[in-house]
Design brief:
heterodimer; A: alpha+beta; Uridine Diphospho-n-acetylenolpyruvylglucosamine Reductase, domain 2; Uridine Diphospho-n-acetylenolpyruvylglucosamine Reductase, domain 3; Enolase-like, domain 1; 3 domains; five-stranded antiparallel sheet; four-stranded antiparallel sheet; 11 helices; 14 strands; globular; B: 786 residues; Aldehyde Oxidoreductase, domain 4; seven-stranded mixed sheet; 25 strands
Chain lengths: 292, 786
């Protein structure tokens, strides 16, 4: 399969990139990694006249911890995120999610910005970032805004972004200790998988021995976008953690999910698995919270 | 060390350095001067009449050199088996599946060729289509090929013994139905080719094929060329596993375009086109009834099978035979009835894949045998041992086993897996399972009726005497056959492996039926051995004249001449060699006469030292209709024990370990034999747990890529404890028989039986995806509640 013809742009600064996408609007697609974009272009599902690569913009690279936040540059690859000590120390399940994305070859190319903006329902990175309330920084020529990832995805392949915007950074507020998290992805094989279901759980405890102050559960691949299991979170809030409680939270999460039948799996199986994975993710998240 | 110097060792593969360093040349690496690029237009509809094809816009596109349709290609029918030639290069009046070829273009580059294809306008009138066996055989269903009522492409009805009578003597009879899913063979290199029709009227086709010989014949027949003007060359190839064992429409189209333009034409399948070409494992639905006596004596099997075959026959007639005929071993089966039907559908064509036709019947039956053993209260391994065949036994359908180490295979995996300590003693969610297998070591007859040798080999010594080169048309497809033949040649000649080179995969090098039905080690191995014996005899004959010593009193070992009665005075020969090689620093020395000196003298006396050998099996098999399918000069057998873990909450199965024993007669290259056993797990594991070609309701493939069609990754593989059983096959070269395909037969049922052991539920449908396993567990839990 061959790529269709297009004009290629390689801006060196965010400003220049914003100017280009601002001028071209719908005619341009932003390339950051390309593990989705180029495949879809080869399949002729999309044929943009212009492709704007972010790969030469130095400001979009790197992962930093500053002022109680973790900042992940748009061009950080899944491989870099999976190996980042900063992320492993603070947002363990984000590193976990990055480490099970695709294969080593894909992880060396795929970026966090690409994984967000392609907005696939089964994407690996959004659930754990949503659990942490991560914010996407969207920049355009005339200004910038910050959008909570929980409000970012609007449908399959759709986000709140406008064609003149570029996602430059994901910022995560590091929660107050003690907290713990876990991400689980279920596919049929051990690697190179598109999740049948994935679940991210985050537990914030009220003191080391304390009850659950707040829990956040995000489900992937069971709705057009990753979704919060809000009734499961309600089940957990203020409660003393236990296996029975997690089982109940799992059932609530299963009810929160809205899976469909498709060729990868049935809705019934996915719903049941939301329950199992939620329970398991919560158990590990609790273990991590109490061992911090 | 045994009696051999080269064979039965662990030789490094001849192709390994090139493949590891990127030096190896595959078809797509080849670039010829003036080469054009071809692209095909394929049907977007599963079943439709072609009303009109308008190529005028495509022809006008700058850079387009030729646009061809059925008008240009003609309507010569071809296929795999001459009895069922049902394909043409292009469709003329109607298309039979999504992917059927309608037209093609050659242009100066691929972009232009693809653009031109998009400019070809075809008017279709859609016809009703059938996608399943049930739809296809239904009363009044549309016919895909007019001459085949109810879309039955082929059927087989055999009975050996008297099944109904035997059932009356049985204490236990059970019936089960099992089904698998269509496979893709998952080879990494999509089919590709370059056709080069030269100004002297000779056609050379470079192609990623398993069978240069058959491709040569089909190309010549379809395009109306003398066979001698067609040469097929197989460069390095990235896997085959069966689907590359026939001729592709693309090969014929590239040849046609090259003949039209007088330029070389390169074509490649995309991954999606590999799926559309298909020719991998069929979907089988087997209903089997097995009867036994209380003491475990296996009495009778009734086997009914439907194969969903797709739009054309390909290997399908052989497939439907194999699905019955190979169950008669390796256990003594006294009565067997088989009714098999291969059905046409408006889907891509199925064909042969590793273990051709016999893999799913084997999986079904080995799982049923475990059920029977359980019903009898017998250990499944002891049950199999009770019925095991031995060397010299003939099956009820006249297959003679000149060697059969099945008992040894079973005993080996029993010990190797610590079966007794584990069976029945593992915790819930952990399981251990066993199965056996039986396979041909090369189909006994060519695909077309002929007395041709199955393989010819020529060995030529370099004129300096230092090296031997083996010329063979056999197909190294990654299985290691070149290395095997180099080892056989080196052993037979009595020289080191490093002094043997192999040129293979070229129809100019001889006749070889190719890499299918696990034939090459036995067939080409024999021809290589005979050619090497011939060369050795020529060298020794000259020495005999020169030294006046009878040839019978000399031998060649490790590159040196051995004289039975001690070394004679050979100074004259050595001086003659040294005189010719002033300035060289590697003169032969030492107390013994070297092969190099002897072979050089032979060249000086006789000219080029060239020897050839040929092999063809003798008359094989019974006299009944279809008796030829399943015949072979030798039969391999195997046993595997697999251990699995099952996540009881998600249904996800993990294979933890496999102990695998295979009787290959005699291992020429021990490493290659073991690699086949390991490969059988990776391929069998994928087929058991993940793989399924999925379709929408219009005959379109939903997962024609390796993102969605899931073959195992390295992380899915488990350790394999490989055990080589050597039964010394009298019909094999040095006692060798096959391992390539037979090794996969026990893999799938061993996993099935292990999963049952882990979860307590039998699953009769592949693949065992987490969902299918979970649903089976859930259903059982719900039944227990009621």
């Amino acid at each position: 399969m061959l790529l269709p013809k297009f004009e290629y742009h390689e801006p060196k600064t965010v400003q220049e990139a914003c100017r280009i996408v601002g001028e071209l609007g719908e005619k341009a697609k932003v390339l950051s990694g390309g593990t989705d974009l180029l495949v879809n272009m080869k399949k002729k599902l999309i044929q943009p006249e212009h492709v704007v690569s972010l790969s030469k913009i130095e400001d979009l690279k790197g992962i930093f911890r500053e002022n109680g936040q973790v900042k992940i540059g748009a061009c950080a690859t899944a491989g870099e995120i999976a190996g980042s000590e900063v992320i492993k120390d603070t947002l363990a399940d984000v590193a976990e999610a990055a480490s099970v994305l695709g294969s080593p070859l894909i992880r060396n190319l795929a970026t966090i910005a690409g994984n967000m903006t392609s907005a696939r329902p089964a994407a690996d990175l959004p659930p754990s970032l949503m659990a942490y309330g991560a914010k996407a920084k969207l920049v355009k020529a005339s200004g910038e805004r910050s959008v909570d990832l929980n409000d970012f995805f609007t449908g399959v392949g759709k986000t709140v972004m406008t064609p003149d915007e570029i996602l430059t950074e994901i910022a995560v507020e590091i929660p107050q200790e003690p907290y713990g998290d876990h991400y689980i992805k279920l596919g049929v094989r051990q690697a190179l998988e598109i999740s049948l279901v994935n679940v991210a759980a985050l537990i914030l405890l009220d003191g080391p021995e304390g009850p659950i102050k707040e829990a956040r559960i995000v489900l992937g691949s069971v709705a057009p976008t990753p979704i919060r299991a809000l009734s499961a979170e309600t089940v957990l809030a203020g409660q003393v953690p236990s296996d029975v409680l997690f089982e109940r939270a799992g059932e609530a999460a299963a009810n929160d999910s809205k899976p469909i039948d498709d060729f990868r799996g049935s809705a019934e199986y996915r719903r049941d698995m939301v329950g199992v994975l939620t329970k398991r993710a919560l158990k590990t998240a609790l273990d991590r919270a109490t061992s911090r | 060390m045994g009696k051999y110097d080269v064979i039965n060792t662990r030789a490094r593969r001849l192709d390994a350095p090139d493949k590891a360093t990127g030096r190896a040349k595959y078809v797509d690496d080849i670039c010829l001067p003036g080469m054009l690029f071809g692209a095909m237009l394929q049907s977007p509809l599963p079943h439709a009449e072609i009303l009109n094809i308008d190529t005028s816009a495509a022809k006008k596109l700058p850079g387009v050199k030729s646009v061809v349709t059925a008008e240009d290609a003609g309507m010569v029918k071809y296929g795999v088996s001459p009895a069922r030639y049902d394909e043409t290069v292009f469709c003329k009046d109607k298309v039979h599946y999504i992917g059927d070829e309608v037209a093609a273009v050659a242009a100066i580059d691929l972009d232009t060729a693809l653009e031109a294809v998009s400019l070809i306008k075809v008017d279709y009138e859609e016809l009703p289509a059938v996608f399943t066996v049930d739809e296809a055989v239904a009363e009044g269903a549309p016919l895909i090929h007019e001459d085949f009522p109810r879309n039955i492409c082929g059927e087989v009805h055999n009975e050996f013994g008297d099944v109904e009578k035997a059932f009356k003597e049985c204490d236990l009879i059970r019936t089960d139905t099992f089904k698998n899913k269509r496979q893709d063979a998952g080879f990494l290199e999509p089919n590709g080719c370059i056709a080069d029709f030269d100004p002297l009227g000779r056609l050379t086709l470079y192609s990623s094929t398993q069978v240069p010989h058959y491709v040569q014949r089909i190309v010549a027949m379809v395009l109306g060329l003398p066979i001698g003007k067609v040469r097929v060359i197989k460069p390095c190839i990235g896997g085959g596993f069966g689907p590359k064992a026939g001729t592709t429409p693309m090969e014929l189209i590239a040849c046609l375009l090259s003949m039209k333009t007088g330029k070389p034409v390169k074509m490649n399948y995309t991954r999606e086109q590999v799926f559309l070409f298909g020719r991998a494992r069929h979907q089988f639905v087997h209903t089997m009834t097995t009867g036994v006596k209380k003491d475990g004596t296996l009495m009778a099997l009734k086997n009914k099978c439907y194969l969903e075959g797709g739009a054309y026959t390909s290997f399908g007639i052989a497939t439907v035979y194999y699905a019955g005929s190979l169950l008669t071993g390796p256990y003594k089966l006294r009565n067997m009835k088989y009714d098999g039907y291969r059905i046409y559908t408006n889907k891509p064509t199925c064909g042969a894949q590793r273990g051709h036709g016999s893999v799913i019947s084997r999986a079904a039956w080995e799982q049923q045998l475990d059920c029977v053993a359980e019903d009898l209260g017998m250990d499944p391994l002891e049950f199999r041992l009770k019925n095991v065949m031995e060397t010299g036994d003939t099956t009820i359908n006249d297959l003679y086993t000149s060697s059969l180490g099945m008992k040894e295979c079973l005993e080996a995996v029993k010990t190797g897996s610590t079966w007794k300590e584990k069976r029945g003693k593992l915790p819930k969610g952990k399981g251990i399972g066993l199965a056996g297998g039986f396979f041909v070591s090369g189909a006994g007859y060519p695909i077309y009726r002929s007395d041709t040798p199955h393989s010819t080999v020529t060995i030529k010594l370099s004129d300096d005497g230092g090296n031997a080169r083996v010329y063979t048309a056999s197909a190294e497809i990654g299985q290691g056959s070149d290395t095997t033949f180099a080892m056989i040649a080196a052993e037979t000649l009595g020289i080191p492996l490093s002094d043997v080179a192999v040129s293979s995969g070229d129809t100019d090098f001889g006749v070889d039926l190719g890499a299918y039905s696990s034939r090459q080690t036995l067939m080409t191995g024999h021809a290589t051995k005979r050619a090497a014996e011939n060369v050795k005899a020529q060298v020794l004959a000259v020495l005999s004249e020169q030294l006046d010593i009878p040839a019978e009193e000399m031998d060649i070992k490790k590159g040196l001449i051995e004289f039975r009665n001690g070394n004679p005075d050979f100074e004259g020969l050595r001086t003659r060699y040294l005189k010719e090689h002033r300035g060289w620093t590697d003169h032969p020395g030492g107390d013994d006469l070297t092969f190099r000196e002897a072979a050089r003298v032979a060249f000086l006396e006789k000219g080029p030292i060239v020897g050839s050998g040929a092999y063809k099996p003798g008359d094989l098999g019974g006299k009944y209709k279809g008796a030829a399918v399943g015949t072979s000069p030798a039969y391999s057998c195997s046993a595997a024990v697999v251990e699995v873990g099952v996540d009881m909450e998600t249904g996800k199965v993990t294979v933890d370990n496999m102990t695998d024993a295979h009787d290959c007669g005699f291992a020429i290259n021990r490493t290659s034999v073991e690699a086949q056993l390991q490969g059988s797990l990776s391929m069998g594991l994928g087929e058991t747990l993940f793989e399924e070609v999925k379709f929408d309701n219009k005959g379109g493939i939903l997962n024609a890529d390796f993102g969605e069609y899931k073959i195992p990754t390295a992380l899915d593989m488990a350790p394999v404890d490989t055990i080589i059983v050597e039964s010394d096959e009298p019909n094999g070269p040095y006692g060798a028989k096959e391992v390539g395909e037979g090794a996969i037969l026990p893999t799938i049922p061993a996993i099935l039986n292990a999963v049952y052991d882990a979860i307590g539920v039998r699953i009769w449908e592949l693949p065992l995806t987490p969902e299918r396993v979970y649903m089976a567990i859930k259903k059982k839990k719900e039944e227990q509640k009621d």
